[in-house]
Amino acid sequence: MNAHPDVVAQPVPPAPVQLSRLLAAAPDPSLNRHLETFGPLDPGADTEGFLQELEASKLTGRGGAAFETWRKAMAAARSGRKGLFPARPVVIANGAEGEPLSFKDRTLLAYAPHLVIDGLLALTRALGGTQMYLYVPAGSIPGVRHAIAEHPGAARIEIVAAPATFIAGEASAVVNRIATGSALPVDQRRRLSEAGLNGRPTLVINVETLAQVALIGRYGARWFREAGTSSDPGTRLVSVSGPPPVQDVVLEVPGGASLVDVLAAAGMEPASVSAVLVGGYHGRWIRPGPYQLSPGGPAGQTVRPGAGVVHALGLGTCGVQVTARILAYLADESARQCGPCMFGLPAMASVLNRIAAGERNPRLPGELDRLAKLVAGRGACRHPDGTAGLVASALEVFDEDVRAHLGGRCLAVGGRPA
Asked: Most buried residue, 30, 243, 255, 329, by most Cβ within 10 Å?
């Protein structure tokens, strides 16, 4: 284990309430229960042909960006074969989960760690790699360490503690943490699949994605596609939270799931919800409606699940004030390594805070929009882009609320002073 003083322990998440594929063995995380539920992984699943099976499955990453898993893996495999002295790829299972509204990865690691380990072992062997890492929060380390100790063939997996910061899970930050101890993103002149950890081809892959890889290795691409839609096959975990008395819950839902169904499964009626943040702090605000959770599709009918977060606001909660608090957090959590993070995000947070406080200045929304467009696409990582996207959706969805605040009133509290 690589211990660092900036790691903060996190509480073990509650037991999942909906069991299907990934969490079918819960709540018992033991190897015996894992094998009773899923059976052993076919040794043939870790051959090079396994990447073709992943391609046929159409599995996309479950960590946020939704890249095609087979394509990322193939890029690392091909990079490793180039040159006079081929380099064996490095595979890193990323369970950092710095997103404050997400707890699905911690839940998966707590109740199904052997699926993640199976996926990591299978993909590493398929790539011809030798080095493997599990990058997880401090609270997940005891359970993961125990699982590795009882899992055949897992002794070479090295555990690295992920700091409890928002950007600690960004791919280049993950590699930087393992290499130097600093979990800050770095400016990438070459892709990680070409030159990552110690200059070797490196694949950083979300832990839920690896659990899906383990199931595809057992049951095949055709089985995987039996759930979900043709464009978004399989299932995904979502962290669902909402206003009291709604309890936080992890649900496993099919690709293309209805947002209304997800809210209902968590005990929420759309009529009792004013807005929903989908995808996390780098996601998008929407009004509750007939949306599908899917990485692709028409903007008015689908919403990207991103980091697998669905967070609902109650009718008495002001979306402007909530977004202002999120934006202040994101500005404080930046790497402070480039202009957009050092100056742009704090300036945006200041403007939105003035709106939320009821300052009667009609120029503020225009200034916020200008700043958001100014930082987008100019950072060393995508933190400014994700933040700008959140703000753009807030200005659109909470337009009426913003205008009320500019008049000194807050609609969420019946038009009383903001």
From this structure: 255
List helix spans (H) across 21-103. Answer: 31-38, 50-57, 69-81
Please check whether residue 341 is in contact with residue 379, taking contact to mean a CB–CB distance below 8 angstroms. yes
Q: Provide φ and ψ at 48, rounded to 5°.
A: -60, -30
Q: What share of the chain is helix, strand, coil (3-state, %, to 5)?
A: 45, 15, 40
In this model, does residue 381 exceed pLDDT 90?
A: no
SS3 210: helix
Separation of alpha carbons 146 and 22, rounded Å: 19
pLDDT band (50, 70, 90) for residue 1 = very low
Predicted local confidence at residue 9, as pLDDT: 42
Q: Which two tokens stand for residue 349?
A: 């947070």
Which pLDDT value is given to residue 43? 67
Note the helical H segments in 41-112.
50-57, 69-81, 104-111
Structure letter (DSSP) for residue 68: B
CA distance 361 to 118: 57
Residues pairing with 131 in the sheet: 90
pLDDT averaged over the chain?
Answer: 91
Instruction: Kindly report which listed range (50-64, 72-86, 95-109, 395-409) carries the lowest average pLDDT score.
Output: 72-86
**β-pairing verdict for 292-293 and 302-303:** parallel
* String of DSSP letters for 234-264: SEEEEEEE-STTPPPEEEEEETTEEHHHHHH
- Token digits of residue 392: 């753009």
Considering only CA atoms, which of 296, 298, 273 is closest in space to residue 397?
273
Residue ranges in 191-317 assigned as alpha helix (H) = 207-225, 259-265
pTM: 0.92
Span of 11-15, 165-169, 336-340 with lowest mean pLDDT: 11-15
- pLDDT value for 159: 98
Task: Summarize the confidence of residues 381-388 as an average pLDDT.
Answer: 92
Nearest C-alpha neighbor of 228 from the set 252, 211, 250 = 252
Instruction: Please report, for residues 82, 158, 252, the alpha-carbon distance to residue 128 in angstroms, rounded to integers and kept in the order given.
Output: 13, 17, 31
pLDDT at 80: 67
Structure tokens at 68: 């095609």
Q: Tell me the three state secondary structure of residue 227.
A: coil
